[in-house]
Amino acid sequence: MPQLDSKLSEVVNQNVNAVGPSGIREFDQEISSIPGIVKLTIGEPDFDVPEHAKQAAIKSIEENKSHYSAQKGIPELRDGISNYLKDRTGVYYDPATEIVVTVGATEAIYSALTTILNPGDKVIVPTPAFALYFPIIQVAGAELITIDTSDDGFVLTPEKLQKVLDENGDSVKAIILNYPSNPTGVEYTEAQLKALADIISQHKMYVLADEIYSELTYGVKHHSIAAMIPGQTILINGLSKSHAMTGYRIGYIAAPKDFVTNASKMHAFVVTAPSNPAQYAAAEALTNGLDDPIPMRAAYHKRRDYIADRLEKMGMQIVMPQGAFYIFAKIPDTIDETSVEFATHLAKDAKVGVTPGSAFGPGGEGWIRMSYAASDEDITLAMDRMNSYLLELTK
């Protein structure tokens, strides 16, 4: 086993060296070895990829579509994305110049942020938020500015945004909005987005709209800020959540041409191009499978209602999700533990895996995130175990 030569111990990108591992994944790994544990930690749909999408991937292999695709993605998929976004957002993106297919929404976020950020720039992230944003901003040498939304129903208010912009001026180059939200499941209304868009439009900054859960909403309509300020919006989406295609790793960026021209360079430097079979599967999904998310959404809706009811009966305060497949629950005030301590004891003593709220930044401490992208059986068992555990603690 080779050991790093001591002369190289400090030969490292210091921005990378300063970044810690993902709190979500790290905690999940720590508890995964517990025998019999039921995990509600990772946002991994328990559904299979729709059959017609799988067959499209197989067909591409059989037809020897095995060479490099266009770096921005195969034309069929970019056409499908363009048509989908025109239908869903009302904004037309030219598939030739304004769309780039990425290796998951993760690469889309990385390529987008590293395209626009320089050392010393600032990025606003309303928290609690998906923890991946934080290290990418740091690696780019930019400064993260968090806005704690926990006192405002986990929604960023125009007043708080304006205050931060007044304090930081033109050094703010972007704000990241993820809605429906991971970890809270909160969705923004059209009026709430419009109020934020009115402020953003007055500043020299982008909004990175991470809308990966846009197809998974419950009784509310999803609105995109891209329809309000298309010239300042970098729209991120993909098929991991809507079509249960997490392992296919297909995401995309849609934005004005000038931005996409540069972002596609960064994308090409990082990955060259996405996998062909995955792209053909995604093209089929967006062309002939726009109704595929409907039964999944119905199942998630049912699970949401069940888990919310069980948690409320346990006396836990929750944020009722309007989208995605997570529920954010407050640790009872009678339990004097941090979110990591509570989640660790819950895993070891009750064999239920949840994610500590502290992993999602300011406003997350004191809360836990549970994913209901798990089977009905696992959710029921987890709730039964959690109920027994809390009853024992309060004896």
UniProtKB/TrEMBL annotation:
Protein EC: 2.6.1.-
InterPro entries: Aminotransferase_I/II_large (IPR004839), AspAT/PAT-like (IPR050596), NHTrfase_class1_PyrdxlP-BS (IPR004838), PyrdxlP-dep_Trfase (IPR015424), PyrdxlP-dep_Trfase_major (IPR015421), PyrdxlP-dep_Trfase_small (IPR015422)
GO molecular function: pyridoxal phosphate binding; transaminase activity
GO annotation (BP), single: amino acid metabolic process
Residue stretches making up the Aminotransferase class I/classII large domain: 37-385
CDD domains recorded: AAT_like
Co-factor requirement: pyridoxal 5'-phosphate
Record bears the keyword Transferase: yes
Keyword terms of this UniProt record: Aminotransferase, Pyridoxal phosphate, Transferase
Superkingdom, natural source: Bacteria
Keyword Transferase (UniProt): yes
EC category name: transferase
PANTHER family per the UniProt record, alphabetical: AMINOTRANSFERASE (PTHR46383:SF4), ASPARTATE AMINOTRANSFERASE (PTHR46383)
Protein family per UniProt: Belongs to the class-I pyridoxal-phosphate-dependent aminotransferase family.
The protein's name: Aminotransferase
